[in-house]
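Lab notebook, bench 4. Still working through the backlog of constructs that have no structural model yet. Next entry is a single chain of 511 residues. Request: give me the structure tokens for it.
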Amino acid sequence: MTTTVGNGNDNKQFKGDPRGLGIPSRVVHIRKLPDDIVEAEVIGLGVPFGDITNLLMLKAKNQAFLEMSSVECAHNMVSCYSAVLPFIRNHPVFVQFSNHKELKTDHSPNHEVTPPLRTVKVAKAIAFDQVPAPLSQRAQAALLGAPHMDPSVLPPGGVLRVVVDNMMYPVSLDALCQIFSKFGTVLRIIIFTKNSQFQALLQYPDSSTAHAAKMCLDGQNIYNGCCTLRINYSKLSSLNVKFNNDKSRDFTRPHLPGGDIDHSRMAAATFAPGIVSVTPYSAPPRAFPPAFTIQPAGLTFPGTARPPYAPPPGGRSVLLVGNLHPERVTPQCLFILFGVYGDVMRVKILFNRKDNALVQMADATQAQLAMCHLSGQRLHGKPLRVTPSKHASVCLPRDGHECEGLTRDFSCSPLHRFKKPASKNYANIFPPSATLHLSNIPPSVLEDDLTAIFSSAGARVLDFKFFQKDHKMALIQMGSVEEATESLILFHNHDLGDRHHLRVSFSKSAI
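Model written out:
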């Protein structure tokens, strides 16, 4: 038996490699799969988003086509994986719409195929060690052998415990509901603080939905580099919610009072066993945007000037940077480094303490992001200390003042990465790594030219790779994160000739 891809009016067997044209379709095209991929792993990508009706595996091409039950399910899947790159056994895979509208099944021995499957059936079979018969023996082994599929650790009533680590920005109850409602109906939710950690208890209708949400969201960041979700199964079978307000909500009982919560009793109350019978809704649960995607920090959303969950009012945009190498650090050096995470307005190296500097970012959000990524990173052999400053701004020295050369104003610099609203650079902010992303490379510059440039300052170049389809971009792997950091500072905006200046940033992945 084989499966073909159809456009609604053709029966031709699939040939070649159809590329998504950005037009929503029920068929999702998955590329760059591992060589030893199994059906169960591909199915796992689609399980959280809805019913799966067909699957076509093209192992020779490291590709697969997954047919969802509706365009909406496929749209949610592509939207999510466009914002959060999925990995299969540490191997990044790429998800996009197919330009085919359906998969058609006929008989031929050339391809492996999984007949139509319902997502709920697949999820429940995984949960209770019952694998659908059409899956291959290897796929069954993959499903049954996975330690996280053990039914003994599944939530008895679909209740998850969520902890938000590295919480640089506030996270609201509504924000969590937007994220978790992507995987199914959220019945009840309670947020609270315990042991100085922001936590939440969240209830789904069943354990299969809770399992799918945990598998996809555990370890993901709400913002790039911070607000990390840590998810476990709760021992509670249900949540007992008494008020609908900004700390708790029961969507099955929309008419609950909105009274204040006794915060001194809240943590104890949330862990007390409570049974809430799920009766037919008297009103539909509150609707949340169906295509929520986890957004990078600093991204400008349509119609807004800043992220929807901004830092608290009064946040400082000036950072105090300590433990610098006094003989090597310059304002330009700090401008380039901190400019990876926001637009640097001014830099001041302290006259009497030249191992310290003040760095003024464009706003408090960018300052928090730079502090999150750079604190503790090594520069010139010393780990940086980055903390908020008590100063609201960096003052420029008077003309002729002795520390004039230690302070610089970069507010009009052409090298700001984020001066354009909704710049694509917001989506490419990553922690310092040993691999650098290079762009704006002219055709005349070859691999040997670039490796020679980066080796010229004494750093080790371990590997280099041009992008296959675009030689204007490349990845270069340095000997260490510190070498990569110093190379970025030295060679960002390096003149390559032909009116091209090199653009350097940290890469999200190694070569």
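Notes after review: The chain has four domains: 2-151, 154-271, 318-409, 430-506. The longest strand covers residues 226-233. Flag for follow-up if needed.
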